[in-house]
Target: L-seryl-tRNA(Sec) selenium transferase
Amino acid sequence: MDDDRRRRTPRTDAVLADPSVAAAAARLGRGRVKEAVVACLEACRAGEVAPEDVVAHVLAMLPTTAASMRRVVNATGVVVHTNLGRAPLSQAAVDAVAVAAGATDVELDLPTGRRGRRGAAALAALAARVPDAGGVHVVNNGAAALVLAACALASGGRRIVIARGELVEIGDGFRIPELLQSVGAELREVGTTNRVHPADYADAIDDRTAFVLKVHPSNFRVEGFTSSVAVRPLAELCRERGVPLVVDIGSGLLAPHRRLPDEPDATTVLRAGADLVTASGDKLLGGPQAGLLLGDASLVERLRRHPIARALRVDKLTLAALEATLVGPAPPVAAALATRPEELLDRARRLALAIGPDLATAVHSDGRVGGGGAPGVPLPSAAVALPASLAEPLRLGALPVVGHVSDGRLLLDLLAVPADLDDELADAVRRVAGVARPGHTA
Ligand SMILES: *Cc1c(COP(=O)(O)O)cnc(C)c1O
Model:
């Protein structure tokens, strides 16, 4: 060990007392900053960091916030990407969350000073967007909405009638039939994997039936010799037999979407006669993680009053983000679905030029809605094609960029990348590829 180096290494306390390091400690917590200082001083003693560079190195090692989740550029071409947190919130929703994070009137009526209905404005905003729903309620996620329906309507040996072809695995090994059974509901399966007919439902409905459940196959498609029963005839049958029809549409579209004609939406399904619709808030609606329940007013009220509803209650941050999503400007998911492919190709060309034509080319690509719905429906998009060897360094860069490798190339698909991120994206690529900015010397 070099004694001189050891002598010249600053003391931990001295580095922690540096004003910029102290400011970081105030923002991120002293423990975390001290760990970085200790690690950096070790590197200094080993001769890897010059003593005068210690502070700058500590600051570079620190995260921007006290939480470890990083901002990531979703260049996968998948609009609602489960591993990237599904729907990104709109700026309006982010602002609303920041305000709600403090003490807030989520459950207080300010004019009277009395207790108010929790999240009344968010619920009103949801009801206003779906006038066909007599009642609305919001829980933690789509799965919680189904659990609430099962607990409130299908306890005590009552059965849920469901088609075999709709026994869906949602993801990460979780399955809707097991979810329903886990809270004590019994299932009465009808039909086969590929086909179910109105008569199958008619034969299965009896005095033990709690409700008929129709689940949208949002993450797979069955092709070939298939048939299912549409909402309208199923609703007619349910009405005749006096049992409610619950439809899990999954994606959370509130009204039909021009680009996703096969995707069910709450308004159409309610008009076709469903008594209750359940959906997620963070798929095609583009809001926070939430479970939406929309439908018959007395049915929704029964669910809302069930004891388990308290355990599925949403946070104030969710209510704030949901309201802002519903009444504010179009969230990123809606914006992505509205972008024209030619616009995306223009952006890809400009990006390829900015990165360097020897490294990058603009190409047509196929985007996807993703786990959120419309399985198998390609969305025409455009991408910047790069050498596949850049995939890992881009993921590990200062601003992580996640693309996808196809045919030996890395594609950075622009469908889910907001246009105002293009400059940062070009910088991120140039940084990892070691390319100087055009017009600048390295
Ligand atoms: C996504 C999905 C669910 C689960 O919703 P979460 O919000 O992830 O709990 C349930 N049913 C369908 C049809 C879905 O697409």
In short: The pocket of pyridoxal-5'-phosphate is lined by residues 141-143, 168, 170, 215-216, 218, 248, 250, 280, 291 (CB under 6 Å).
